[in-house]
Design a protein that fits this description.
The chain is mostly helical and 254 residues long. It has helices spanning 2-18, 28-47, 62-89, 91-94, 101-126, 136-161, 166-181, 196-200, 203-216, 222-246, 250-253.
């Protein structure tokens, strides 16, 4: 219980620090996802003028399809960036307190993941509200799987970042490539056949499909969900293993 209380306090601290000094404060938590959705919608609907039939976008409008993908991506990317930098960013606190380093990683990951809930709220409002609320029970397991997956990756990379700071810059750069390699701004059916094997071997594809099908079609593909669940468990266990192997030397290099 003490660990959960400390984790809760660290999440509260991260949220306050994220918006400290800003005029609108925590209101930015709701405004940022909305602005991002607006920018992508403007670019792909009115500048690029992307046109996809509703059959390709899971029976929903392109706006809702786009928002579902962005909700997934916002949660993953922000959680990963925050989580993998959490230990190095809080080095001064780690030297002064007895709080285990992994709690900073988990707290930062959870804080970054909040944008997913906000974005999905907008998507639910745009998709046949209030009938879309029946999709919420399906979204919860999909979100938990994604959260534990990114926690594992953040623990792994965060532990390595203590020793090799360049990893943070490399990962941040690679995220741009990963974003466009996933069917977020385009339907999965539009992926050319020669490139589809790359999706099959991308763990994020299964996490993304869980959210898209749950939100847009009102069901979860069992095989996709089980695959994502296994990948999430492996990621979390690998993250814990790497953290335990490397944590003893943290305080020598921080």
């Amino acid at each position: 219980m003490r660990t959960l209380y400390v984790l809760y306090q660290l999440v509260k601290r991260d949220i306050k620090m994220s918006f400290a000094g800003s005029l609108f404060g925590t209101f930015w938590m709701f405004l940022n996802p909305l602005l991002m959705m607006g920018v992508f919608y403007l670019i792909f609907q009115h500048i690029v003028k992307a046109k996809f039939p509703q059959e390709a976008t899971e029976g929903a409008s392109y706006t809702v399809y786009l928002l579902a993908g962005l909700a997934f991506w916002n949660g993953f990317s922000q959680s990963l960036i925050r989580g993998m930098n959490a230990i190095t960013d809080n080095a001064y606190l780690l030297k002064k307190t007895a709080v285990p380093p992994y709690l900073f990683v988990l707290a930062s990951t959870i804080t970054g993941f909040i944008s997913t809930f906000v974005s999905l709220t907008y998507a639910l409002l745009l998709k046949d509200f209030p009938y879309s609320l029946k999709h919420v029970p399906l979204l919860l397991p999909a979100l938990l799987v994604e959260l534990f997956f990114v926690m594992g990756v953040a623990l792994l990379l965060g532990s390595l970042c203590v020793y090799v700071r360049d990893i943070s810059q490399i990962v941040s750069t690679l995220l741009s490539f990963v974003f466009y390699s996933l069917p977020i701004i385009y339907p999965v059916s539009y992926v050319p056949d020669p490139l589809k094997p790359f999706l099959v071997f991308n763990p994020l594809f299964y996490m993304l499909r869980n959210i898209q099908t749950a939100l847009l079609k009102g069901y979860i593909d069992v095989s996709v969900f089980l695959t994502s669940l296994v990948l999430s468990c492996l990621s979390f266990m690998l993250g814990i293993l790497v953290y335990k192997l490397l944590r003893r030397g943290f305080y020598d290099v921080l």
